[in-house]
Amino acid sequence: MFQQGLKGVVAVQTAIASVDGDRGELRYRGQLVGDVIQGKSFDETAYFLWYGQWPDAEQLTNLQQQLISYRELPAHIVEIAQLLPKETPLMDAMRTLVSAYTHAEFQATSPAEQAIALTAALPVMTAAFYRLQIGQELISPRDDFGHTENYLWMINGQEPTRVQTEALETYLKLTMEHGMNASTFAARVTISTESDLVSAVVSAIGTMKGPLHGGAPSGVIDLLDKMKTEDRIDAVITEKLDRGEKIMGFGHRVYRTEDPRSVILRDKCFELQGEDPWIDLATVAEKHIVNLLNERKPGRALYTNVEFYAAAIMRSIAMPTQLFTPTFSIARIVGWTAHALEQQDNNVIFRPQSEYIGS
Predict the structure, then answer these.
(1) Contact at 8 Å (CB) between 160 and 127?
(2) pLDDT score of 272 more than 90
């Protein structure tokens, strides 16, 4: 039976993650995402998604050492980045640089280590090309920084604050994986042909680039910028509702209740209240907006989605909008590679049928 866009069609059985939109649950390896990431670093969460278990002390140390070692980009990748026109969109540059990442030393490693290498290299490639775009010198990675802290360092050349690192790392851990989304499906289709991991990630990046999938929360940024202060919230939202405009950051295609990722980001923002004005504004604005939506659109049950608090976090660290979708990809590469490895373990090539409707 034909289902446009394969909506509702089960094409994969996976042990990596599950999304229950009716109950508002996202699970990593069967565990609620909030329980998984609580007190865990980016590295630990990635290990859990890749291997289905938590690393012991030795395994975690080995993983961290691998991630640090792969921050050093091969010379030819830096040269290609320098040759690309500065006006090249960042997602296009990421796709190009990842496609060129294959080299003899990389090919000699296992697929699992390749996943680690690509996860470590992607933020470095992103930061490097961003710096070239804005006419700034490239910044070398820091071995004494964690994954998220190093990414922020390489973008700005300044040591990020604890608040900035904690907020962004929470976002990265929450968006590593989200079931059979379009980019993850693209990665699995590519690897199912017995292609390589680099090609699978390139396919995923090309898919993530599309605004229907990897659309950045720039609309929420604009909303926060218009409000600026707590006393303007009601006026800005009322004006938008009077004009019949959508309130960006509210509602989700999958979740019929609150987006669990938004709930966790909100909790993190509550923890950080008083330390950043944009995070403070978002936490107050949500309450006002929900009340106004309930008054004007009763029964719709519109809740914040992950983009609302993600935008507040991006705004608080002054992240340029062109880095939003690339940053999303830097998190999601963990899920892409986990799915590609799982596909390799029990592979059948994807070969759906088509229905001819021409003359």
Answers:
(1) no
(2) no
All CATH 1.10.580.10 domain ranges of the chain, comma separated, are 17-211+332-345
CB atoms within 10 A of CB 298: 8
Residue 257 CB partners (closer than 8 Å, separation 6+): 22, 23, 24, 301, 303
Query: Considering 252, 286, 339, 342, which one is annotated as catalytic?
Result: 252
CB atoms within 10 A of CB 9: 11
Q: Are 188 and 12 in contact (CB under 8 A)?
A: yes
3-state SS class at 214 = helix
DSSP states along 191-212: HHTT--HHHHHHHHHHHHTSHH
This prediction has a pTM of 0.91
pLDDT digits (tens, 9 = 90+) for 20-77: 988 989 999 999 999 999 999 999 999 999 999 999 999 999 999 999 999 999 999 9
Residue ranges of the chain that CATH labels 1.10.230.10: 218-316
Rounded Cα distance between 253 and 28, Å, is 20
CATH architecture of 218-316: Orthogonal Bundle (1.10)
Q: Is 307 tagged catalytic?
A: yes
Q: Which of 44, 169, 177, 307 is catalytic?
A: 307
CATH for 17-211+332-345, options being 1.10.580.10, 3.40.50.300, 3.30.930.10, 3.40.50.970: 1.10.580.10
